[in-house]
Design a protein that fits this description.
- By secondary structure, this protein is of the alpha/beta class.
- The chain is about 55% helix and about 15% strand.
- It is built from ten helices and four strands; from the N terminus they run βαβααβαβαααααα.
- It has a four-stranded parallel sheet.
- Helix 1 packs parallel to helix 8, helix 5 packs across helix 8 and helix 9 crosses helix 10.
- It is globular.
Amino acid sequence: MRVLLITEDPTYDQHLLKPLLEAMFAHLDRAKVRVRVCTNPVYPGVENVLKNLCAVTSANPMVDLYLLVVDRDGKSGRRQMLDRLETENGNLLAAHAIEEVEVWTLAGLEHAAWKEIRQATDAKERFFQPLAAAEYAHFPFGGYKEMGLKAAANYKRMRQLCQEDLLDLENRLAGWLAARAT
């Protein structure tokens, strides 16, 4: 199965999300699923990605599942908008991280201030970036790849702490896979 990951910032997000999604597929007994990140064309920002989603899917026709993962960014109506996109396209699953995909990574890294992180609308700036600067600054891309791999190795913790967004995506993915297996 071929999966294309579409993000609002593939330069950095891919290093957090690709290992996470590979861990999710492994958890669903689909370890052989190939996750590829859409890096061409790139439409930075949620609005640009959404506006050009048809162009991305048209440019990548040999894909079984498109996974769109964006930040919620404090926008309460984002889930409803993503639900509409899924309804319009049967091979698209869309998720929004509360509030940012970096929060999922922090869950896997066992950050001590978890309750504060989960409630913060600026968790990336307050928690993720200081941790990256303190412990991972010497790595390329600010340590995103290393942080993503380390967090994904702790996927079970991530899904426990991020039930309303990450576990929701896993459950919808399991349903999507089951529907195609019949």
